[in-house]
Amino acid sequence: QSALTQPPSASGSPGQSVTISCTGTSSDVGGYNYVSWYQQHPGKAPKLMIYEVSKRPSGVPDRFSGSKSGNTASLTVSGLQAEDEADYYCSSYAGSNNLDVVFGGGTKLTVL
Amino acid sequence: EVQLVESGGGLVQPGGSLRLSCAVSGFTSSGYWMYWVRQAPGKGLVWVSRIDTDGSSTNYADSVKGRFTISRDDAKNTLYLQMNSLRADDTAVYYCARGRPGGHFDHWGQGTLVTVSS
After folding, report:
1. Distance of CA B73 to the CA centre of its chain
2. Could you tell me what percent of chain A has a pLDDT over 90?
3. Nearest-angstrom CA–CA distance, B10 and B8
4. Is residue A68 classed as helix, strand or coil in its secondary structure?
5. Chain B contact present for A100, CB below 8 A
6. Which of A70, B28, B36, B50 has the greatest number of CB atoms lying within 10 Å of its CB?
7. For residue B63, which of B78, B48, B42, B52 has the smallest C-alpha distance?
């Protein structure tokens, strides 16, 4: 099963909004409401930002939001801040009989 | 506080073996599916393996199937990954992660680097 497709880069100025897409198939993104998003700063472990398409863990700012339409999920970061500059990865449940989880290739978010 | 701490990484020659450990604290590991995820230098995240709550069910990425074995010792609150027949393309930072229903990972370790090179 191939990785989910994300744009390699995205950017925005402080205060602006940016949306990162994540495209899969009906076997993963489109088949389950189990899309999650992770933020990773250089040299650090990934951090869960969104799970089950649109839910935020405790402590994650509400500037981060998620959605899904068909086989494509999206992460929107509103009110961009300098500390949002990081790599973002989407992932989706893909069924326990095959690949449990499939990740996207990652998107480097730059705050201009 | 939930913590996951990996160890056991290092430099190994092609064809060699390593066993990674992930010591967990702050939660009862037996109640969770546990995962290994790896990240090659400069590359993205890749799911490697999963073990269910009692170890009766495991799953592996095709790239490691038959070479890697995931296991757990809940008495020691420790997750393991036995890696055999290592190849250069296994070079990566290996993270252990706590799984939640639906396959998301709410806590991650800091990672341990495995380098396969002669």
Report:
1. 14
2. 90
3. 7
4. strand
5. yes
6. B36
7. B48
Yes or no, beta carbons of A34 and B104 under 8 Å apart: yes
CA atoms of A43 and B15, how far apart (whole Å)? 28
The band of B16, judged by pLDDT with boundaries at 50, 70 and 90, is very high
Residues 59-88 of A with CB under 8 A from B: none
pLDDT of residue B103: 87
Alpha-carbon dihedral A105, A106, A107, B1, rounded to 10 degrees: 170
Please, are residues B117 and B13 in contact by the beta-carbon 8 Å criterion? Answer: yes
Cβ–Cβ under 8 Å, residues B7 and B21: yes
What are the residues facing A73 on neighbouring strands?
A22, A68
Q: Which residue has the tokens 């989706």?
A: A92
3 state DSSP class of B30: helix
Strands A107-111 and A9-12: parallel
Interval B95-106 mean pLDDT: 93
C-beta of residue A91 within 8 angstroms of C-beta of residue B103 = yes
Positions of E strands within B1-118? 3-7, 10-12, 18-25, 34-39, 45-51, 58-60, 68-73, 78-83, 92-100, 104-108, 112-116
Which of B105, B107, B113 to probe by mutation at the A interface, max A CB count within 10 Å? Answer: B105
